[in-house]
Design a protein that fits this description.
The structure is a single chain. With 498 residues, the chain is of the alpha+beta class. It folds into two domains: 1-220, PAS domain (Beta-Lactamase); 337-484, Histidine kinase-like ATPase, C-terminal domain (Heat Shock Protein 90, 2-Layer Sandwich), CATH 3.30.565. It is built from ten helices and twelve strands. The strands form three sheets. The chain has a five-stranded antiparallel beta sheet. It has a five-stranded mixed beta sheet with strand order 7-9-10-12-11, with helices on one face. A hairpin with a 4-residue loop joins strand 1 and strand 2 (103-106). The longest helix is centred in the middle third of the chain and has 64 residues, at 233-296. The protein starts with a helix and ends in a 14-residue tail after the last strand.
Length: 498
């Protein structure tokens, strides 16, 4: 939200590029439109005035032709009531007089009002010459035309024709309103168009600012700016910014991956040290205690001496197994690759079953291989996997029970199952049996330390396989290993190390 607010301030602020573009365009367009409006108004006003002036001049000439006899009237007759003028209209006034301001005839619509006469202007006119001027009649503006009518042997007469300009003013008022509305509308519409166009043009700049602020605040280098379809300077800037973010993201991803690997290695080392120290403490304590007893008491009976030595031997063997298992897991944590070769599972299962029969203590070990199966992997670790599963089954199968080893090939994978006749695994223990140092029942663990199944899971994972267990209390357990079969085109390089 803060980034969006800052971008809004940049976009609408006084120094905004978008605002400056709209402002300058508005000023330029406004100046052009004002000049255009003034020109149109001036031309229309001048045209209307010129048209009125022509009409007044024509009307004055007509009045002069029919009123030539007015000059022969006596002065007493000139002051009589006005006569009708065939050329007058409601908004046009006609008056005939002399240069001294005396009125001889006037149109009826003037009543008792006389058209004003500028004697100096009239005195400056030549016979037959006319002049236009602006005046007022009854407080209303009029356009007035004054012309001298030459009369043979007499002073010239003055013919005046006036017309109200209220209609012209109304027309010009409507024109002013129309031009004002058009000017404002054109400015508003063009301003809106320029604003939208400028916003579209500079939008990537806003995205650049917002993205840079977001990346700086959150460290998320996966954000990108939309590059405009029309490539210009702004588009090139957006593309360059995206390229920079992409490179920074790759660099950051590499650093993160290196940091994660370092943390995982450190955690694996700490776990290895903690697990080893925990599991080695008991056998070392037992061996040290028995050794100190044998040294301190010379009168130890042969039976007690034999028992102590036997216990030392058992704990030493347990320590050897523990050390070997820990070394295997350390290699797994370090990510050391396994050898890759074609391994026939049939002969390998025969060999492992024979070893299991030697280790059995009254249990029966059977093997059923229903198909030939070859996988790509490491023969030694696969042998270790099978021995772990068989040893686990023998430990939990009572004397007289049977352990069944079976090999099948289905759906492109080899399936190896080990079934025991033991007491089964409780449902709450099933999710944890592949964890390191986890023992569901230490009283019946047979001296194990809980590393065998963890090693088995690692071996299966290294061979791109899966291991699962199904068990019910009192019904025994079945461990199923599924490994991908090698194809005819398989080679030792076909399966990369994980």
């Amino acid at each position: 939200m803060a980034a969006g607010a800052r971008w809004s301030g940049w976009r609408f602020g006084r120094g905004s590029l978008r605002g400056r573009l709209a402002l300058w365009h508005g000023l330029a367009l406004g100046a052009v439109l004002v000049v255009f409006a003034l020109t149109v108004y001036g031309l229309v006003a001048r045209g209307l005035t010129a048209e009125v002036d022509r009409e007044l001049a024509d009307r004055a000439q007509q009045v002069a032709r029919v009123s030539g006899r007015v000059s022969r009237l006596a002065p007493a007759q000139r002051g009589r009531a006005p006569l009708a003028n065939p050329f007058a209209s409601d908004d046009t006034y006609v008056q005939v007089g002399n240069v001294n301001g005396q009125v001889v005839r006037r149109s009826q619509n003037l009543g008792d009002v006389a058209l004003p006469l500028d004697r100096r202007m009239a005195g400056a006119l030549s016979p037959g010459e006319g002049a236009h001027s602006n005046s007022e009649v009854r407080g209303e503006p009029v356009r007035l035309y004054t012309v001298l009518l030459p009369i043979r042997g007499r002073p010239p007469a003055v013919v005046q024709v006036a017309r109200e300009t209220a209609s012209i003013e109304r027309i010009l008022e409507r024109l002013r309103r129309l031009l004002a509305v058009g000017l404002l509308g054109a400015l508003g519409l063009s301003g809106l168009v320029v604003w939208l166009a400028a916003g579209r043009a500079v939008a990537p700049l806003g995205q650049l600012i917002e993205t840079a602020e977001t990346v700086g605040a959150s460290g998320d280098l996966s954000r990108r700016v939309d590059v405009p379809v029309a490539q210009g300077e702004v588009g090139q800037l957006a593309a360059t910014f995206n390229t920079m973010l992409q490179r920074l993201e790759r660099t950051d991803a590499g650093l993160r991956a290196a940091r994660v690997r370092a943390e995982e290695a450190l955690e694996a080392q700490r776990r290895f040290v903690a697990d080893a120290s925990h599991e080695l403490r008991t056998p070392l304590t037992t061996i040290r205690g028995n050794a100190e007893m044998l040294r301190a008491y010379e009168e130890v009976t042969p039976h007690d001496r034999a028992a102590a030595l036997a216990q030392i031997q058992r704990e030493s063997e347990r320590m050897s197994r523990l050390v070997n298992d820990l070394l295997t897991l350390a290699r797994a944590d370090a990510g050391q690759p396994l050898a890759r070769e074609l391994v026939a599972l049939g002969p390998l299962l025969d060999e492992v079953a024979a070893q299991a029969r030697v280790l059995a203590q009254g249990q029966q070990v059977s093997l059923a291989a229903t198909a030939e199966a070859t996988v790509l992997g490491d023969a030694d670790t696969l042998r270790q996997l099978l021995l772990i599963l068989l040893d686990n089954a023998l430990q939990h199968t009572p004397e007289g029970g049977s352990v069944n080893l079976r090999l099948e090939a289905q759906a492109g994978e080899a399936r190896i199952s080990v079934r025991d006749a033991g007491q089964g695994i409780a449902p709450e223990d099933l999710p944890h049996i592949f964890e390191r140092f986890y023992q569901a029942d230490r009283a019946r663990s047979g001296g194990g330390v809980g590393l065998g199944l963890a090693i088995a899971r690692w071996i299966v994972a290294e061979h791109r396989g899966e291991i699962e267990v199904s068990s019910s209390p009192g019904e025994g357990s079945v461990f199923l290993v599924r490994l991908p079969l090698a194809t005819p085109a398989s080679s030792p390089n076909a399966l990369p190390a994980s």
